[in-house]
Design goal:
By secondary structure, the chain is mostly helical. The protein contains eight helices and no strands. It folds into two domains: about 70 residues; about 80 residues, no CATH class. The longest helix is centred in the last third of the chain and has 25 residues. About 30% of the residues are buried.
């Protein structure tokens, strides 16, 4: 109980609009969620709302997306988060770290979903030529996952499937 109360206070700080406070709370939130992933569940609605808030400081979006690279994502938020991430990836004005983390989060959600992987591939390829190294690195990972998914699908098409 005490841990949940302490985590609630930490999340209050993390979800504030004061970007310096968010930055300072971010690493502690990530460590706590790594140790106890279920702690984040009650805060998902607010996390998604903050990502949708264009007035929030870019560091808020960056830290939330960094957290979502590894935190468990409830199924009911996957579609909404995926759309948010695609929008951030496709926004050349978004900071590099925001776009790079958005690629990773979108790829996590899209794993095993050929249509979503194809969409990520199209969006990332469109920006690769002028992309910073962090975005190119994340994009290479996504393109590799998409290629592996394509290979898996083509190898099961001709075989005997049950």
């Amino acid at each position: 109980m005490r841990d949940r109360e302490r985590f609630a206070e930490l999340m209050r700080l993390f979800l504030s609009q004061e970007y310096r406070v968010v930055q300072r709370a971010a690493s502690d939130v990530m460590m706590a969620v790594e140790r106890e992933p279920k702690l984040i569940a009650p805060y998902f609605k607010r996390i998604v709302e903050m990502l949708e808030d264009d007035s929030a400081h870019a560091s808020v979006h960056r830290n939330i997306l960094r957290l979502l690279q590894t935190a468990p994502i409830p199924a009911r938020y996957e579609g909404r988060l995926y759309d948010i991430c695609i929008g951030k990836i496709d926004d050349p004005a978004a900071p590099t770290a925001v776009r790079a983390f958005a690629i990773e989060v979108a790829a996590r959600i899209a794993r095993g979903e050929p249509e979503l992987l194809a969409e990520i591939r199209l969006v990332t390829e469109r920006h690769l030529k002028d992309a910073k190294p962090a975005i190119r690195a994340k994009a290479r990972n996504v393109l590799k996952i998409a290629a592996e998914n394509d290979e898996d699908r083509s190898s099961t098409r001709g075989g005997n499937r049950i």
